[in-house]
Amino acid sequence: xxxxxxxxxxxxxxxxxxxxxxxxxxxxxxxxxxxxxxxxxxxxxxxxxxxxxxxxxxxxxxxxxxxxxxxxxxxxxxxxxxxxxxxxxxxxxxxxxxxxxxxxxxxxxxxxxxxxxxxxxxxxxxxxxxxxxxxxxxxxxxxxxxxxxxxxxxxxxxxxxxxxxxxxxxxxxxxxxxxxxxxxxxxxxxxxxxxxxxxxxxxxxxxxxxxxxxxxxxxxxxxxxxxxxxxxxxxxxxxxxxxxxxxxxxxxxxxxxxxxxxxxxxxxxxxxxxxxxxxxxxxxxxxxxxxxxxxxxxxxxxxxxxxxxxxxxxxxxxxxxxxxxxxxxxxxxxxxxxxxx
Length: 341
Known about the structure:
- With 341 residues, this protein is of the alpha/beta class.
- The chain has a single domain (10-339), classed as TIM Barrel, CATH 3.20.20.
- Helix content is 38%, strand content 18%.
- The strands form four sheets. An eight-stranded parallel β-sheet has the order 2-1-12-11-8-5-4-3. A two-stranded antiparallel sheet has the order 6-7. Strands 9-10 form a two-stranded antiparallel ribbon.
- Helix 3 links the parallel strand 1 and strand 2 (78-82).
- Helix 3 (57-73) packs parallel to helix 11 (326-339), helix 5 crosses helix 6 and helix 9 (272-284) packs parallel to helix 11 (326-339).
């Protein structure tokens, strides 16, 4: 292992790029709105939506800017939280790892430029659109670089079993969605939620810290892959009933689930997300318990349908998993607003 250079600590990056008073106020308001959905105080549908991974600032900001007028059109039914995922987990370690590693996908890794780039991107989103966004907590120790600009944090399927992710989630003051693991064992996810909602003492960034537990840690169903490499969905009515039963015996507060419409639920067939989202809402119509449990959807969407290799350079097209393009996205959000009751 070669130690290349010492990076700035979060406090230093925040001092270089401080959040504005208006941005801080927008985040507080957004945080309250998301908590209200997860607690059941609000009956809006939470939609966490955006590119599989952020790849370039201009395209991501254009995408989020398009979401703002769409949010106003559906504000009585839907609460949109844009995805700005700046870290990308890689199963084998190969491939694009996100803007934190490569602020320019076609250049070499540069973590210092990456730290600055991801903070500037999230701050532009708040300042220009009023959205404080969602990001994946791939590296728990890096959360502090963005904790004052995020309103939602996701823990991925490969991270949900990790002790440090669970304990860090327990100390966050924003909602944390925790996915079922890649193998599909829901007990692993439920154990993660129990840990995240509990108080802990642990080491974080070389500090002894104490967490009080995060009452808004909740489940995300994303499908799973079996030992033969075959994907299986877990968004159907029977899957939601099973999760409801697990919650009933868990002692967890604010029972909630978001259904991830892509990944193993769609088999990465991005256009299936439209049908899956509508099926989930259809399931909520058949059971009051399921309607109370299902708080929203997680959708992968960008400006252009599908995906590409990084060197192709198509503006607004995913360079990781395939995404819905803008026209399909807009139509889907409007349809969901009509279907949600």
